[in-house]
Amino acid sequence: MCVAADWRRVYWWLVLQWVVGVALAGPCAQCCDCLPKLLMVNCSSRQLNSVPEGILEYAQMLNLTYNHLKTLMKWQFSGLTQLRELDLSDNMLTIIEVEAFFGLQNLLTLRVSRNRLKIISVGVFAGLPNVRLLDISENEILVFLDDMFREMPSLQKLEASENDLVFISNRAFSGLINLQELNLNRCNLTLVPVEAMSQLTGLLQLRFCRMGITTLPNNSFRQLSRLRDLRVSHCPWLDSLAINSLIGLNLTSLTLSHCNLSSIPYSPLHHLVYLRYLDLSYNPITSIQSNLLGDLLRLQELHLVGANLLRVEPGAFRGLAFFRLLNMSSNRLVTLEESVFHSVATLEVLRLDGNPLACDCRLLWVMRRRLQLRFEGQPPTCASPVQVQGRRFGDFTEVELPWLFICRHSRILTRKPQDVRTDEGHTVLLFCEADGDPEPSITWLSPKRSLLTGSGRIRVLSNGTLEVRYAQVQDSGYYLCIASNAAGNDSISVSLRVRGFPSSTRNRSGPFFLEGWSFVSGQAPGNGSHGSQPFPFDVKTLVIAVTMGFLSFLSSVAICFIFMFLWSQSKGQIKHTATIDFVPRSSASAGGCGRTTMETGRFTMKLV
Ligand SMILES: *[C@@H]1O[C@H](CO)[C@@H](O)[C@H](O)[C@H]1NC(C)=O
Ligand SMILES: *[C@@H]1O[C@H](CO)[C@@H](O)[C@H](O)[C@H]1NC(C)=O
Ligand SMILES: *[C@@H]1O[C@H](CO)[C@@H](O)[C@H](O)[C@H]1NC(C)=O
Ligand SMILES: *[C@@H]1O[C@H](CO)[C@@H](O)[C@H](O)[C@H]1NC(C)=O
Ligand SMILES: *[C@@H]1O[C@H](CO)[C@@H](O)[C@H](O)[C@H]1NC(C)=O
Ligand SMILES: *[C@@H]1O[C@H](CO)[C@@H](O)[C@H](O)[C@H]1NC(C)=O
Ligand SMILES: *[C@@H]1O[C@H](CO)[C@@H](O)[C@H](O)[C@H]1NC(C)=O
Ligand SMILES: *[C@@H]1O[C@H](CO)[C@@H](O)[C@H](O)[C@H]1NC(C)=O
Ligand SMILES: *[C@@H]1O[C@H](CO)[C@@H](O)[C@H](O)[C@H]1NC(C)=O
Ligand SMILES: *[C@@H]1O[C@H](CO)[C@@H](O)[C@H](O)[C@H]1NC(C)=O
Fold it and tell me: Is 604 helix (H, G, I), strand (E, B) or coil?
């Protein structure tokens, strides 16, 4: 155990030190190593229960790590005015009294990590005007109180990761005008501490990891206009970014990895025109769409590792003229076409390993550039076709290339002309099977040359067959099937003729009518995708409706005649009993037969 300093011995020791500069002896030696050349006192791993007294005043570094310290008293280190670095990590500190570090006016670095602090009172860090780095990581701190760091105006880096933070008070960071770097990893925060962070106007780098947030709200980082590097990672519930969440930022580096984003947040990112580094790895992102990243003019690196990527659309990186590194290891990409890039000439590093790549003509550009490109020791590997399965891109020789990395032009197999005839109301299938390498995609165009989709009454099935349900006369015409792949297109035209029923034999209860109605209700004024169906009723339906209307008109006229005939009969009877020479018009018009009544009236009058 350390013994209190004997001041005379210290004095003599100091004199000795001053004059001769020999190795140290004295109280320090009893418990700590004193390394005079380094001006360091090393009390690491000495099973100390309290801070030893008599530590030399001129020491610049004091290492108290791996001891059993539980509390730090008020003014514990007073007198150590020369101290620049104090390390209290790996102890059992639960209490640090207010002003414990008072007097350490030259201290630059204070480390209190891996202790058991649950709370740090306001005033603990009083009297530390020069501290640049404060490390309070790996404690059990629950809250940051208002003004906690107020008396550390020089603080540049605050390392507060691995705590149990559930709340950061709005003014917790007040006074930290020089803070440049803040790490808040593994907190139990469920909200971004927007208000508290708005005080950190000098912040350059901010790291958030393992937070329980589900979304980044609008204006999350306002006031942080000097922030250049934002890293948000391991937030498994974070699945969206509000459109204005990153507004106010001017980042050069952004990491949003190990979260639950299902697509690239194009809109929230688009104002980051100085962004050079973007890491969206380990998010369930399945595709990169074309032409949506072009605003990120200066982007140089994109990392999208382990993201379930299936497809990078042509033109995805259009506009990115400085793009030099693409890291897409461990995805599900079958290919990466040259057309996705603005220019492959700027590309230096390409990581495509861990993807089920099809080594056909679409990847020939990588082979051609394999000497200029760096694969960082992990060249891509072919997964198909079978003859090159498992071979690495670096292993191919120049002479092999014309026989490998080739595509087979798409070719429609059902070549014989199809002439399909059907009756109205039936369902017909138009076949189009194609072959090629890579597997061709099949599209169908209607007789009016609009693209048919996978939904609607006339739709393209997943196997390329066109299905026309409840065929109607106006569906007749020439349908065009196009099979296309990277090597070329092939097409055939299929004729469909639909024969209409005469209107009298129409099966009115049939699905044709039901379909017509459901079509009207489901697809409001539909044009475009259902180009084949310009109007919800076909001509035939209209004819029937008009015919039926006309028939009912005729029958009502006939009923009127019958009614008037009976009425005129009754007129005759009246004549026998009384002399009536005038028929009141109003009683007749009550029959509802307007004009006909007038004629009858005249006739009646003649009888009289
Ligand atoms: C301080 O002491 C510990 C334990 O004795 C030792 O492991 C460590 O290397 C020392 N540090 C320096 C800088 O000498
Ligand atoms: C913080 O989260 C961790 C893991 O999610 C959990 O074990 C711990 O109990 C939480 N702490 C508090 C204070 O909620
Ligand atoms: C974010 O701001 C935009 C534009 O002001 C607004 O349309 C959107 O609804 C806001 N989102 C949220 C989550 O508040
Ligand atoms: C991630 O998002 C998907 C839906 O997009 C959801 O089913 C899943 O539960 C989410 N994961 C977590 C950890 O919240
Ligand atoms: C954004 O950052 C870039 C590079 O860090 C800098 O050149 C530019 O002036 C900044 N723009 C604004 C508006 O602060
Ligand atoms: C690509 O990402 C992986 C995983 O994050 C990383 O290990 C590797 O260093 C990255 N490669 C390059 C060239 O940055
Ligand atoms: C395509 O699928 C439909 C329905 O699933 C089937 O009737 C048709 O025969 C298939 N066409 C071909 C060419 O296999
Ligand atoms: C194949 O068709 C697509 C459109 O379907 C077109 O963009 C492409 O240029 C065509 N390719 C060839 C080789 O004709
Ligand atoms: C009329 O349509 C119904 C329903 O689809 C069908 O069951 C019936 O066979 C059809 N009758 C005639 C004569 O086509
Ligand atoms: C319908 O057609 C009009 C004019 O032809 C066009 O402007 C509009 O975009 C179309 N709507 C859809 C959904 O395709």
Answer: helix
